[in-house]
Design a protein that fits this description.
This protein is an alpha/beta fold and 244 residues long. Helices cover 34% and strands 10% of the residues. The longest helix has 13 residues. Bound molecules: zinc ion (ZN). Zinc ion (ZN) binds next to β5.
């Protein structure tokens, strides 16, 4: 895993080994699950805190591999717009006292190879309370190769999850999904050995979408620009905007 190699330990040999056959096969078969700085602190499945920089040299190398093969990168990362104290007292395992800013590193990763499609998972569920609509909108606007995967779970911050007090989508979320419908997909991050509450919430989310947005987010996106069936040729020469 990338976070086990500190960026200053990435030698040319490490890069060659990481970009070899094994790396290709891994990125092709199941995408890469990377954790940016300030990634996981608690949660289900006994997920430990794991951390490294989003612009780690091996992530940059992975972006090149993903672009070469027309494969998306699935990035699971908390939003930390500035250094901050660890947000909760009751985490599992070893957690740090503070979290380091990670959005600038994410932007460097996105800018490194505009043909690498980065799917930032966990839209709608975050533990820092910082993955706000304005933050997501500004990043989507600046980086055409950024996509978002929705995740819904009751354990996340109410400040940033998409549902309002009456159960419908918050106006800011609705506007963002209308403006960037071709950049979102529905995800769940559901573990196989746990309950299916997240799938139930994903259904609720889709049902709350206007039909034209639901069609794009729920069907066209998974089968199209994010989907693994997208031909590499479709991703090149379109000013970084993927069309169907
Ligand atoms: Zn995740």
């Amino acid at each position: 895993m990338i976070q086990r190699i500190t960026p200053d330990k990435v030698t040319p040999d490490v890069l060659v080994n990481s970009s070899g056959r094994r790396g290709h096969r891994e990125s092709r078969s199941r995408g890469f699950r990377g954790n940016g700085r300030g990634a996981f602190f608690l949660g289900r499945g006994n997920h430990p805190y794991e951390s490294t920089r989003p612009d780690h040299p091996l992530f940059l190398a992975l972006a090149d591999i993903a672009a070469q093969h027309g494969m998306p990168i699935d990035l699971h990362m908390e939003a930390v717009p500035q250094d901050m104290p660890f947000p909760r007292q009751s985490g599992r395992g070893q957690n740090p006292e503070t979290l380091k800013e990670n959005i600038s590193g994410l932007e460097r990763l996105l800018a490194h190879n505009p043909n690498a499609r980065i799917v930032w998972a966990h839209a709608g569920w975050d533990l820092t309370g910082e993955r706000t609509v304005p933050l997501m909108r500004s990043l989507l606007k600046k980086h055409p190769n950024l996509y978002m995967s929705v995740k819904l779970d009751e354990s996340g911050s109410r400040r940033t999850w998409p549902f309002g007090p009456k159960g419908g989508l918050k106006p800011g979320w609705l506007a963002m999904l209308r403006d960037f419908s071709d950049r979102f997909v529905i995800g769940s991050d559901q573990f196989f050995d746990e309950g299916t509450e997240r799938l139930t919430l994903a259904r609720k989310f889709v049902d709350a979408l206007p039909p034209e947005v639901a069609r794009v987010v729920g069907s066209e996106m998974p089968n199209g620009s994010i989907g693994l069936r997208q031909r590499r040729d479709d991703l090149i020469g379109q000013e970084e905007k993927v069309t169907f």
